[in-house]
Amino acid sequence: GRVLHVVGTRPNFVKAAPVVAALRATGHDQVLVHTGQHYDERMSHIFFRELGLPAPDTDLGVGSGSQARQTADLLVALETELLARAPALVVVYGDVNSTLAAALAAAKLGIPVAHVEAGLRSFDMAMPEEVNRRLVDQLAELLFATSPEAVGHLAREGVDPGRVHLVGNPMIDTLLTHLDHFDPAAARAAHALPERYGVVTLHRPANVDDPEAAAAAARALTEAAGHLDLAVPLHPRGREALRKAGLADAPGIHLLEPLGYVEFMGLVRGAAAVITDSGGVQEETTVLGVPCLTLRTTTERPVTVTHGTNRLVRHGELVPALRKVLDGQPAAGPEGPPLWDGKAGPRIARVLTEWLERHD
Ligand code: UD1
Ligand code: UDP
């Protein structure tokens, strides 16, 4: 049977690349559908080139909109696509609106769904991603988890344990595949950064959509830049809001376009500290042993905190936390959490292949 992967956003591309590659190695019939949720060159195309993802078989070009509008447009476009491609199985990644729409469209057509990165929970239903995660995990036939906590969440929500597979973290497969190309000195030189610098990414609605939150973030970052030069590649969502809130190219603040994966990870690898609200970046810093300060009140990735690299901070706590990091020892060794070993893609491919053989 045919496998159809649905991707739509920057983090989806990073997670799908190793799964698509591992299935390709088995010679399986697979189709890659891009929903077009992300569409800028620097949010989309650059990742296909860098990560060796095949060009999508279709780009649905759905684009941006409110939560309901975007999800509805995705649902309609995906239904047509699934009917035309008639896959045996649909694979979805992470927790974005494209993930939910694909899982729902498939489930309504009676097509089984596999969810990569199942079982993560922030327990904060104000996050659109938490809504997506919970619903997708109820719809999925096969659930691939990155950590034992995730397996526990699924068990407590009544998901049949026979469907759940602890396989590790495909985002870390991608990281380890490209690690030798992450060149801090080159990335630093390209952006005129000093030897000691930090990297900042912010794009969560809770930090950038509300003007008061954006102002608090801008203030905290401007003060932090007094202690450490900050490279700030801005996601399009936060760009206008953070600038309006007062984040400007000031001494110590280097506002950048969104970066390609290899250049971004080059900067992260060499950073004295990372400040973020990203999900993926909390995991990447964990494996690279780079201290990470997460500007959020919750995380769906607690293993990054218990591992020792990540800490949740409020805006007012950022500068003291940063100073502590800069004065202290490296956060943790290079060993990542169990199964974050670069082999999640092949493990997922094996489970998918066995499932397909049983259901052919
Ligand atoms: C989405 C995901 C989020 C994920 C993030 C990764 C949902 C609910 N959110 O958030 O979980 O962390 O992707 O980056 O799915 N825009 C552009 N160019 C683009 C894409 C977006 O300018 O190529 C702008 C548009 O103004 C758009 C806004 O960014 O309205 C938000 O884009 P959207 O895809 O709706 O959500 P993200 O904030 O990117
Ligand atoms: N990333 C990138 N360039 C950037 C910012 C992020 O390549 O300028 C990568 C980052 O390494 C991570 C992925 O994009 O692997 C996920 O990004 P994002 O923070 O957008 O999504 P989230 O993980 O929060 O859903």
Report on the architecture of this protein.
By secondary structure, this protein is α/β, with parallel strands linked by helices. It contains 16 helices and 13 strands. The strands form 2 sheets. A 7-stranded parallel β-sheet has the order 3-2-1-4-5-6-7, sandwiched between helices. The mean pLDDT is 96. Residues 10-11, 14, 201, 233, 235, 258-259, 261, 264-265, 278-281, 284 line the site of uridine-5'-diphosphate.
Largest sheet: 7 strands, parallel
Question: Are there runs of 5+ residues with pLDDT below 50, and where?
Answer: none
Strands of the widest sheet, in order across it, are: 3-2-1-4-5-6-7
Q: Quote the distance from N terminus to C terminus.
A: 6 Å
Short synopsis of the structure:
With 360 residues, this protein is of the alpha/beta class.
Task: From the structure above, extract its key features.
360 residues; alpha/beta; six-stranded parallel β-sheet; 16 helices; 14% strand; binds uridine-diphosphate-N-acetylglucosamine; binds uridine-5'-diphosphate
Spell out the blueprint of helices and strands.
Layout: E1 3-7, H1 10-25, E2 30-34, H2 41-51, E3 58-59, H3 67-85, E4 89-93, H4 97-108, E5 113-116, H5 128-139, E6 142-145, H6 148-156, E7 164-166, H7 170-178, H8 184-190, E8 197-201, H9 205-208, H10 211-224, E9 229-233, H11 236-244, E10 253-256, H12 261-269, E11 273-276, H13 279-288, E12 292-294, H14 303-306, E13 310-312, H15 318-327, H16 344-359
Parallel strand pairs: 1-2, 1-4, 2-3, 4-5, 5-6, 6-7, 8-9, 8-11, 9-10, 11-12, 12-13
The structure holds uridine-diphosphate-N-acetylglucosamine and uridine-5'-diphosphate.
The site of uridine-diphosphate-N-acetylglucosamine has 19 residues, from α1, α5 and α11.
Family: Belongs to the UDP-N-acetylglucosamine 2-epimerase family.
Pfam families: Epimerase_2
Keywords: Isomerase
